[in-house]
Write a structure and sequence with these properties.
This protein is α/β, with parallel strands linked by helices. The chain has 5 domains: about 140 residues, 3-Layer(aba) Sandwich (Trna Endonuclease, Chain: A, domain 1), CATH 3.40.1350.10; about 220 residues, Rossmann fold; about 60 residues, no CATH class; about 120 residues, no CATH class; about 120 residues, Alpha-Beta Plaits (2-Layer Sandwich). The chain is built from 29 helices and 20 strands. The strands form 5 sheets. It has a 7-stranded mixed beta sheet with strand order 7-6-12-8-11-10-9, covered by helices on one side. Strand 2 and strand 3 form a beta hairpin. Helix 5 crosses helix 7. It is globular. It starts with a helix and ends in a 5-residue tail after the last helix. About 35% of the residues are buried.
Length: about 775
């Protein structure tokens, strides 16, 4: 009886496995049939041809004919490819019979596993196509012309621009670093990407970097390499599709963006989103979305979520692979970066797709030299060896730091000889100005263009346009809008208006994408915005200056232009704590620039009853500054030195503070707390429940036995909420002491024992005003 039961169980198990195998085969046949339908065929499944059962008969209607081309298809979803030549021979016999009987013209076998080269050669001789499912998917749309154009652009450059060498001639790879819990160095980013593409378990990638660090060049390199591999062996790698997300600002949906891309960029004859979606689900693509930070001009947390949810309509399929690039500064804090890119486990998370953040690192001396060796010989009429540029970069103050960014290093190479010859101070604003003027002169001299605008006038009009973009939702202009803009700026004769508009659009560092013209590089627009704001300071007329909070890159450009301190101080004096919204940033922007120029400038100043909305008090000492009744709305005090009494007299709203915590770990339970990987998450939850928001948390735990220090940056409505946050953290965590105000930080530093001397140095690094 026992053996009989075992026998029945064995037969039942065998039957279940058999049914599962049949179901698996049917599902695969349906997937393959859907592919033929998408290709435009009429599909008949499980049909008998010449007394033999055939999985699929697909009929393609021939153009201009009422007859069709019939394909008999066999589907095999097997773990191993077995008896390949024998299977081809058997199917070849059926094809011969079908042809003679007039029931089919060709045949294909579709499998999950790849075929051997021997089997493919044997099948080709028999007139049978051997394809994997992925290879058949790749036939849905022909990306060959697009991939060839990608390779041509990278290797040969943009046609019609002979003075601009192709990227392949001077590309130098960058080092990178994994961010988050898996922090480690990546010395070969190309190799990392290749390994990631082969790993089906790793999440998608977010390539982050400050402006000018070469994110777009990296994307072009990856796209070129994959395109080359795919054309050499179609179906063996993913098809790279490189999207510029600035196009998204005028698009209502990701579907519209994809359809437009397939049509206008790839030249697909039948650019249907359904075909694209099927290929994406099958893992046919690497989707590279370059410029996440350019998807919207006005950004808040909700905008980030909305934009990512649009992108993730394409990310969701299990086989998809996505690279997303963005400026690092686009995320206002480490917490926001983690929330956006790694939403799992976040409170009230609305998304599930995760991105592994990777930061592109600035170049070191070795990479700078390699770039110079490649790039300098490509400069037209170059007179100096690459070592001349290296020596100048090392000897001129401030230039070596700029050279760490590939975009600025390229600009240095082009403009450095002119700056040295002119005796002008070498800084970023002068580099940009010399570069832009030089490019405009090249248009006339090298390309022999007859331009309607002088270099100075063109830059002035561009400067005004940049300021307009800076204040509006869309950083682009159409041709029809440009007619009105040029008419208002230049007032040319009506008969020449179109000529002036075309001249301006074609020779002014603008590029056209669809019907929109925008700046070819974002940093050019940011420089021109800063130049426009500097002109307002010189004229003592704050127009755009007072209407919008200074973006960080614009502010850094502007600070390097040495704006008049007394003018900025006067603009602060003009403000009142209650002013119209259109001028609310005048005082705060002035504070930001003054602090960037010299943090000690504010010492002893009287800002009582002033509107300082949006100010960044960078490393400023405010202990002697009168802030009575001053409006401190959305200001950054995280690196400032201030007293509780002085700050308590101001009007506070949504202020960013820096808090120092010294924690004593005295037991195993406390030790376990700090071994938990979600400690910052715990901090964030406690702060949020207290009415604040954690923006950044930095920990230094190598201070000696049982000592841990935190520097935490939080945003709170006012001092009451700030104290509530501190009190809650003191209750929830084993905090020995904490410090917010100047006297507290002084006491914390003085109380540290001698063996914690390194802790003193760390505290000073975290609080710049103490250095």
């Amino acid at each position: 009886m026992v053996s009989s039961r075992k026998g029945r169980k064995g037969r039942v198990g065998s039957a279940r496995r058999g049914r599962a195998s049949v179901d698996k085969g049917k599902n695969f046949e349906e997937e393959v049939a859907d592919l033929y339908r998408l290709l435009g065929a009429t599909v008949v499944p499980n049909i008998e041809i010449c007394q033999k059962k055939v999985d699929i008969l697909a009929t393609f209607l021939l153009p201009g004919s009422t007859t069709g081309h019939r394909v008999i298809v066999e589907c095999k979803d097997e773990k191993k490819a077995v008896s390949q030549n024998q299977r081809v021979m058997q199917f070849s016999g059926l094809l011969d019979l079908a042809r003679k009987a007039g029931e089919a013209e060709s045949a294909e076998i579709i499998t999950r596993n790849p075929w051997s080269d021997q089997a493919k050669g044997f099948a080709r001789a028999q007139g049978i196509g051997l394809l994997t499912y992925e290879e058949k998917v790749a036939q849905l749309m022909d990306f060959g012309p697009y991939l060839k154009s990608v390779i041509s652009y990278y290797e040969e450059g943009l046609k019609g621009h002979p003075s601009e060498p192709p990227l392949a001639a001077y590309y130098v790879e960058s080092d990178a670093q994994l961010l988050g819990q898996e922090e480690k160095e990546i010395s070969d980013l190309d190799a990392y990407i290749r390994g990631w593409l082969e790993d089906r378990t790793t999440r998608h990638l977010a390539i982050l970097g400050e402006y000018g660090t070469g994110k777009t060049c990296f994307c072009q390199k990856v796209t070129h390499d994959l395109a080359t591999s795919w054309l050499a062996a179609p179906g063996t790698t993913r098809i790279p599709l490189l999207f510029n997300l600035r196009d998204f600002t005028k698009t209502l949906s990701i579907e519209a963006l994809i359809t437009s891309f397939l049509d206008s960029v790839c030249g697909i004859a039948n650019p249907r989103f359904k075909l694209f979606e099927t290929m994406n689900r099958a893992g046919a693509f690497l989707l590279i979305f370059d410029g996440f930070d350019e998807m919207a001009v006005r950004v808040d947390a909700d905008t980030l979520e909305i934009n990512l949810r649009e992108i993730e309509k394409l990310v969701a399929p299990g086989n998809s692979k996505v690279i997303l690039t963005s400026r690092l500064e686009y995320f206002v804090s480490a917490e926001e970066q983690a929330r956006v890119l790694q939403p799992r486990g976040q409170l009230l998370a609305t998304r599930d797709v995760e991105y592994q953040p990777i930061q592109i690192k600035p170049w070191d001396d070795d990479k700078i030299e390699r770039f110079l060796q490649k790039r300098v010989p490509l400069i037209p009429n170059v007179k100096e060896d690459w070592t001349f540029y290296r020596d100048q970069i090392q000897n001129i103050p401030g230039l070596s730091d700029l050279a760490k960014r590939p975009v600025l290093l390229d600009m240095i190479v082009k403009t450095l000889p002119q700056l040295i010859a002119s005796g002008v101070s070498i800084n970023r604003p002068n580099l940009y100005y010399t570069y832009l003027i030089g490019e405009l002169k090249r248009q006339k001299v090298v390309k022999k263009r007859i331009l309607l605008l002088t270099e100075a006038r063109r830059l002035s009009v561009l400067q005004d346009l940049a300021l307009q973009f800076y204040q509006e939702e869309e950083a682009s202009i159409t041709f029809s809008d440009s007619l009105e803009y040029i008419d208002s700026c230049l007032q040319p004769p009506r008969t020449e208006l179109e000529a002036y508009a075309r001249d301006f659009l074609n020779c002014s560092f603008l590029v056209r994408e669809a019907d929109q013209f925008r700046f070819s590089h974002r940093s050019i627009m940011e420089y021109l915005v800063a130049k426009g704001l500097y002109a307002e300071i010189e004229a003592k007329k704050p127009e755009a200056f007072k209407k919008q909070k200074l973006e960080w890159v614009v502010a850094s450009f502007l600070a390097e232009m040495n704006p008049a301190e007394q003018t900025l101080l006067g603009w602060i004096e003009e403000t009142k704590s209650s002013v119209p919204d259109e001028s609310k940033y005048q005082g705060g922007n002035a504070i930001t620039l003054l602090c960037m120029r010299d943090p000690s400038f504010l010492i002893g100043k009287d800002f009582s009853d002033k509107n300082l909305t949006g100010a960044r008090f960078l490393a400023a000492d405010l202990t002697t500054v009168n802030l009575a009744s001053a409006l401190l709305k959305e200001v950054d005090l995280s690196s400032a030195k201030f007293s509780e009494e002085g700050l308590g007299e101001a009007q506070l709203y949504r202020v960013v503070f820096g808090l120092l915590f010294h924690l004593r770990i005295t037991g195993t339970e406390h030790q376990k707390i700090f071994e938990r990987r979600d400690l910052f998450g715990d901090f964030s939850k406690v702060i949020r429940r207290s009415g604040g928001a954690l923006l950044l948390a930095g920990r230094e735990s190598s201070m000696g036995k049982d000592h841990v220090f935190f520097h935490t940056i939080v945003r709170c409505k006012d001092l009451v909420i700030l104290e509530r946050v501190r009190k809650t953290l003191l209750t929830k965590f084993p905090v020995y002491s904490s410090a917010i105000y100047a006297d507290e930080i002084e006491k914390l530093v003085q109380a540290l024992p001698m063996e914690l001397a390194n802790a003193v140095e760390w505290v000073k690094r975290m609080t710049p005003h103490w250095t």
